[in-house]
Amino acid sequence: MSFSLKFKGEKAIPVEKEQTILQASLAAGIPHYHACGGKGQCTTCRIMVLTGKEKLTPPTGNEQVIRNIKKFPANIRLACQTHVLEDGVEVQRLIRDETDRLIFVDGNVADTIGEIGERRKLALFFIDVRNFTPFLENNLPFDVIHLMRRILSIFKNAIVQYNGEIIDTAGDGLYAVFGLDSKIREAVDSAVLAGFKILEDLRIYNNTYVRPYFNHTFEVGIGVHAGNVVVGNVGIGLSHNLTVMGYPVNIAARLQAATKELNNNFVISALAYRLLKKPPYSLGCGHLNLRGVSSTYEVQLIGHPYLGTSNASSGKLLSGPPDQFLL
Ligand code: FES
């Protein structure tokens, strides 16, 4: 008995019931990589199942061991360990040449999340030091670097404590995500708790060290949003090369940038705010105009007004929504 199996971008081939997908593809002339000879050890025969994954045999013991180690998503299978049970399966070879093999197998890319890209719902967290430039201009390079390291370590400790992952750092800020190993509600909770921990730890650091020794007070702006993003590893030899992309990332970055105009150091999108199990007190909501979006975007102000502003110095809280502004 034979079934038809489609290789995307290549051809449809017949597969006998007793043949593995690898055996069938080789028999049909497809140059399918199989470095270990089909023993389920090298993973070079891996395929992505585009349709009909339920029409395949379950993973063998060998495949399951590798799946656990490599953390393969459900739609990645080893062709040498898999048989077809029905028509209607479409797959795609992932390793087609030596460059693919170097990227996916010889590198460490395979050990990390999103080797082939996944769409995930994540909490997105941007933070930036607001007033670092004046400090930088008025202090010794040693002190600048030393304090920057201390502040970034405050950021990192809080993010790690709440199971976040730092994706990128740029100058005096960074970008992290929460939810790689949890559901979105928990992820947003974690992002907000990490943000509050940073604000508190920074307050203590300012009071005990920065202000007494440097007559300066560091402030930060935090933006949090949640949404569907593409997560993948673009591994080009750099360590830790996880990339997270998508429009929600841009929104989170813009919320962080908007903290200054909204005069609040912690801005969260209304969408993410509604996901929180115990939403913190909000000083009010704001409405932002995002470029390319016709309706205004609602945010909640869950931090404090910046120091040095009239609101902050008088201890007066913002009572209503700030004016709209264009991001
Ligand atoms: S050929 Fe090596 S794992 Fe399939």
Descriptive account of the structure:
The protein is of the alpha+beta class. The chain has 2 domains: 110 residues, Beta-grasp domain (Ubiquitin-like (UB roll)); 209 residues, Nucleotide cyclase, GGDEF domain (Alpha-Beta Plaits, 2-Layer Sandwich), CATH 3.30.70.1230. The strands form 2 sheets. Strands 6, 7, 8, 9, 10, 11, 12, 13 and 14 form a 9-stranded mixed β-sheet that branches. A 5-stranded mixed β-sheet has the order 2-1-5-3-4, covered by helices on one side. Helix 5 runs antiparallel to helix 6. The N and C termini lie far apart (62 Å). The C terminus is likely disordered. It binds FE2/S2 (inorganic) cluster. FE2/S2 (inorganic) cluster binds next to loops. InterPro entries: 2Fe-2S_ferredoxin-like_sf (IPR036010), 2Fe-2S_ferredoxin-type (IPR001041), A/G_cyclase (IPR001054), Adenylyl/Guanylyl_Cyclase_3/4 (IPR050697), Beta-grasp_dom_sf (IPR012675), Nucleotide_cyclase (IPR029787). It is a multi-pass membrane protein.
Essential attributes:
14 strands; disordered C terminus; Ubiquitin-like (UB roll); 9 helices; Alpha-Beta Plaits; 327 residues; elongated; alpha+beta
Short description:
34% of the residues lie in helices and 26% in strands. By secondary structure, it is α+β, with helices and mostly antiparallel strands.
